[in-house]
Amino acid sequence: MRAGSISGRLLVVTLLSMPGFVPAQSGQKAAPAKSTDQPSPLALLSQQIQDLSTSVPPELASYAFLRLVETKAVSQPEQQRQLTEQAYMLAGLSPYSMRLTAVGGVSDTRAGYLSQALMQGMDTLSLRTRAVTAMLKLDPDRARDLFEQLRPLAIANRSCTDSMLYDPAAYYRSAGDVYRKGFTPDEQAKGLPDEFLESVFRDVTHASEVGPAAELLRTVQFDPEMLARAEGAFARSLNSIRGDYRSFAATQADLTRNVMRLASVRGRASHALLEAVRNYVVANESGAVCGSSSENVGGSEASTNSSTYAALNVVLERYGIAQISDADLKPGSVVAANETDTQAYWQSPTSKQLLTSVRALRSGDKDSPQWQESASSALTSLREWIDAGSEPSEEDFYIQKAVLYSQMLIATPDSAAYPEMLNAYIAFLSEEPPSDDVRIYWLWNIQNLVQRVRMNHWRNDSARLKLEAALEDAPSPPIALYGYLLELERTQRPSFTRGYARQ
Asked: If 0-12 CB within 10 Å is exposed, 13-18 middle and 19+ buried, where does residue 200 land?
């Protein structure tokens, strides 16, 4: 059984067990409940979105519920609260616990596409922190409970062979929201917000957290006493973070930039914090660093020199702290950094030929018989490319095929071939993905299609109208749900028109 099917069944069972949730019949849109008062278009649309959410992956259902709450498409506070609770729970079923970002020049690779796909915020942490923010407006005490369930982050170290790094920034943005909005005046008078935020800095345990934690420290307005407590907690955390050079290298610039900004304002950076920053930098730069397999400790290109920290050294000197020297930065060892997840695409004969054929459609007379024949041939070849074994993994096969379909649409919006290409792409996206690993790319491609409508809502061109019609007629519940969310945006923004240009 495919992993996607299992997730779908888990979602249905879970939602059916929740109070107040009324699902639609399988494969059908539920009719609105009979009432003496005709429901408003917004109420009908909200119910359609909730009904359809029983048939989509849990992370998409979570996203949809949060959109209903954030846009106030449901007006009753208790219903908003229930949807937020459901969104929080469903977010835990996402295949990705946290956003991952690619480092380095890896755009046309597996890592690069995964990084882009996760930008849509379908990971557990992104969705749950959004739920916390939504709950702050409804029930601050419950929002704090939900945030506490995220703690501790417990992020595992990445190795030198990883080019995908964890990005917990959403957690620290949410912590700032809870600090500012999650406490009553009485609780504020007792100092509970300060205790909460001090504990957040005390719990920083991984290099990937250092950058966003420093950003939080810099941007929150503290009184002098609380600033000292927060900086002290953060300093103690920095003094113990070791062992993940990849994440250290990716975040140390954010750390030093924010600390130097604090130090530029009188009384906004403590001696202890700056000492901890120095210790953190030296400990990580002088330990095991990532480099190529040909490098050695004595002559490593991976090692940095003191010029990298010239600006920080100026601040350290001003505070009477020893500067970071070249000797401090000599690595203890160099670990090979041959990334395992930067699989380059368009390497197999089939994928390379398909890419060449699709790119050729960008030029030429699109009304000529020759161009039409080339477009038809390229589409046929893409449809018939079904051998996932021709690529390193099923994931790689799916990504490349989706990219080719997307590039075909971009190359042919004004051609006679566009409707057939669009329908082929919609048919491809209407099929349930073969695994959870592929699901994130599936949802990303659907979102990108809908985004084209959103970005070009003011245009009255045939390509946009055909795309809208194709989305409406698609048999896939996720495509339909994205369409309903787009309709929700139109309903709430009168200037966002449908089917015609704004006058």
From this structure: buried
Q: 100-102 and 164-166: which strand pairing?
A: antiparallel
**389 backbone φψ class: left, alpha, beta (φ>0; ψ -120 to 50):** alpha
C-alpha dihedral (72, 75, 78, 83), degrees to nearest 10: -40
DSSP letters for 72-113: TSS--HHHHHHHHHHHHHHHTTSS-SS-EEE-SS-TTBHHHH
Angle between helices 207-219 and 224-238 (to 10 degrees): 170
CA 452 – CA 101 distance, rounded (Å): 24
239 and 281 in contact (C-beta within 8 Å)? Answer: no
Instruction: Specify the DSSP class assigned to residue 337.
Output: -
Greatest Cα pair distance in the chain: 83
Confidence category of residue 1, pLDDT binned at 50, 70, 90: very low
Backbone dihedral region of 336: left (phi > 0), alpha (psi from -120 to 50 degrees) or beta?
Answer: beta
- The amino acid present at 475, given as its one-letter code, is P
Q: Under a CB-based contact definition with an 8 Å cutoff, are residues 474 and 430 in contact?
A: yes
pLDDT at 503: 29
Residue 35 and residue 496: Cα distance in Å, rounded? Answer: 30
CA–CA gap between residue 211 and residue 446 (Å, rounded): 32
Report the alpha-carbon distance of residue 371 to residue 362 in Å, rounded.
Answer: 10
Q: Looking at this protein, which amino acid is placed at residue 246?
A: R
Number of CB atoms found within 10 A of residue 500's CB: 9
Cα first-last separation, the chain: 51
What is d(CA 118, CA 96) in angstroms, rounded to the nearest whole number?
9
What are the tens digits of pLDDT across the range 354-390? 999 999 999 989 889 999 999 999 999 999 999 999 9
Cis peptide before 32 (omega within 30 of 0): no
For 69-122, the pLDDT digits (tens) are 999 999 899 999 999 999 999 999 999 999 999 887 667 888 889 999 999 999
In Å, how far are 95, 176, 203 from 155, measured between CA atoms?
A: 16, 20, 11
Residue 164: its H or E element:
strand 164-166
